[in-house]
Amino acid sequence: MSREQNFQRVTDCGIVAVVRFSDPGPLVEVVRALVAGGVTVAEVTLTVPNALDVIRAAKRELGDRVLLGAGTVLDPETARAALLAGAEFLVAPTVNLEVIAMCRRYDKLVMPGAFTPTEVLTAWEAGADIVKVFPAEVVGPAFFKALRGPLPQVKLMPTGGVDLDTAPEFLKAGAVCLGVGSQMVEPKAVAAGDFARITQLAKQYVEVVNRHRAG
Fold it and tell me: Which entry of 43, 59, 88, 108 is annotated as an active-site residue?
């Protein structure tokens, strides 16, 4: 699908699952559990050992049921490797203009991380599709509401500190989607192979998004 279609898929879902764990072994099943709960967009962070193999395996097993990306992409060399491995979007904790340019070159979604208004606008002007505000728990939903005043055109995604309590407030403040990590992909559940727990949590986050959109 095109970058525009994938952008629509991300915003329709409203959640980008952050999949991070010390052992890559169970992560394809984690992605499967997320999809079963209605979360159909997931980034596998490159802090995971053999993360690109996880992306390849999940794409092979789940196909179009999930939109898979790579997270914690810090440089253009890693960006290109992730795209060649099949990542449909890239997420970063920082603004690297070369990573953004790489995604534009290959017509892939890119979500660089920013923290200040200057960084947010720099990322947006460089071609970011969505700007990830990280760590979002430091600034909270009020920051998003304030930023929407002068920068209403920028699509924002909070990541870090997004849980079932804060998610509604971030959406109300103008977030276009939510980056959710260990609050949904619980390390304890992954370690125990309790994939039903991850599916249950995914359903709860989907319900938060649906309630917000229903007004």
Answer: 43
